[in-house]
Amino acid sequence: MRVRGALLREMGLPAPYGRSRPLEIAALELAPPGPGELLVRVRAAGLCHSDLSVIDGSRPRVMPMVLGHEAAGEIVDAGEHCAGYEPGDHVVLTFVPACGSCPPCRDQRAALCEPGAAVNAAGTLLSGERRWRLGDEYPNHHLGVSAFADHVVVSTASAIPVGRDIPFDIAAIFGCAVLTGVGAVLNSARVELWESIAIFGLGGVGLAALLGARAAGARQIVAVDVVESKLELARELGATDVVAGGEGAVEAVRAATGGGADKAVETAGSERVLAQAYAATRRGGTTVTVGLPHPARMLSIPAVSLVAEERVLRGSYLGSCVPARDIPRYVDLYREGRLPVDRLLTHRIGLDEVNEGFDRLARGEAVRQAMTFD
Which of the 8 DSSP states describes residue 178? Predict the structure, then answer.
């Protein structure tokens, strides 16, 4: 079938993207779904810093690629061996197609699925196939999703059914921002009732982490960012303290928490900010990073502190979530009013506005932008 999608041919074109136009809106051919695959009509997709990292070249991927990885939509057709999926079902799409049988999957660590990581790096679906075509080219899939298109083919391992009561633009952000941010707090940092937490970086993932900390019953939530409007939103969403990012942030967090936070979550994708988050925790504290800095960037921390102060530093990919388990849980929290992730949506755009949307994201003027295909 013929679909419209946002194709990235070259990484590293300069901002502003509204001028350089790295994403080309192309008419693409999409092959039918194979065994274990679904044809999904995308109804909403989120613009995420992980997409921006591919555009600016700090997260290298194979080119050309139909970009986008956070989305929700409805199933149009299903290939063979798709038990449990029917046309008309609403699904959230996730960016690690977990096979369910490799050692990490068997250990309930779906984010580390070995076949999933391999095909994501190769730009294919979990089957190893590419379903896109543009003339003589076969563009790559972005993290098994390629959400910036009106229809996509995905593996069933990338699709989590959700109820029809959740609006698509809200359901979409459960596929990345909510999984990553809330999961980092609940699964990785394991924030407990009455603990303190500092959150460095208040984009969609960071503010989702804030909401997760509230749901976990954190006593004190310190929100850190360089953008004043994001600090204001963080306060509205339940931050007990806000701190301007940059020089002095560590001292301000330590002062606010009486010597350092119990837990810290870093979402900015900066090794400098990660070092600040680590320094802002107390002795015995835990720092979790979900950011994705350029692979060449190196982190420097006092090595002795890991032992002498029993600090913990850990990474969290996909919020250390099992999407089939955690998305339904987090959706239920949203239904109960305990996870108001709808507050993260600041802009709604169309496919033709995607380059301008990434300019807005790069300038820090948006939390989550929903691209809709109504």
Answer: I
Which residues make Cβ contacts (< 8 Å) with residue 88, sequence separation at least 6?
Answer: 74, 75
Residue 37 and residue 129: Cα distance in Å, rounded? 11
The residue assigned the tokens 């394991």 is 190
Question: Is the separation of the CB atoms in 374 and 43 below 8 Å?
Answer: yes
Q: What is the pLDDT along the chain (374 residues), one digit of tens a residue?
A: 999 999 999 999 999 999 999 999 999 999 999 999 999 999 999 999 999 999 999 999 999 999 999 999 999 999 999 999 999 999 999 999 999 999 999 999 999 999 999 999 999 999 999 999 999 999 999 999 999 999 999 999 999 999 999 999 999 999 999 999 999 999 999 999 999 999 999 999 999 999 999 999 999 999 999 999 999 999 999 999 999 999 999 999 999 999 999 999 999 999 999 999 999 999 999 999 999 998 899 999 999 999 999 999 999 999 999 999 999 999 999 999 999 999 999 999 999 999 999 999 999 999 999 999 97
Q: What is the phi/psi pair of residue 102, to 5°?
A: -75, 165
| 350, two tokens | 């169309």
| Judgement on whether residues 140 and 9 belong to the same structural domain of the protein | yes
Cα–Cα distance, 189 to 197 (Å, whole number): 9
Peptide bond into 16 cis (omega under 30): yes
* 185 found inside a domain: no
Examine the domain organization and report whether 26 and 173 are in the same domain: yes
What are the two backbone dihedrals, phi and then psi, of residue 214, each rounded to the nearest 5 degrees? -65, -45
Asked whether the whole model's pTM tops 0.85, one would answer yes
Does one domain contain both 227 and 166? no
Which domain does 365 fall in, by range? 2-177+320-372
List the 2-8 sheet strands across, edge first.
132-133, 23-30, 2-8, 65-66, 140-141
Respond yes or no on whether the N-terminal peptide bond of residue 323 is cis (omega within 30° of 0).
no
Q: How many domains does the chain have?
A: 2
Identity of residue 367: V
For residues 79 and 37, state if they share a domain: yes
CATH code of the domain containing 27: 3.90.180.10
